Fold:
Amino acid sequence: MTTIDLKGDLSVANAEDLRKMFKAALQKKTEVTLNVSSLEDIDVSIIQLVYALITGLLKEKRELIFSGTFSPTVKKRLYSVGLISSAELSDEICISELNNRMRLAA
Structure:
């Protein structure tokens, strides 16, 4: 299994490093987990990279697993871009909605 820890405030400034990590994870052919416990905020460029990772995994009949707890700020960001139905969701429901929306979009 490959685990990628998302930490701090991630923005376009972090996009190239994350793209490289995601590409390496795709090449390993193992299960991929994103740990969001230390993620404080995320911008749209990073959400797009996560979407690209999910798309790549789905093409190989693999899925992305989220672990950890989403910060209130991250939930608000995911809600603002339409990936979850409310910023007040439990982490379990948030992950379920996020997975469903990403799968449908791919």
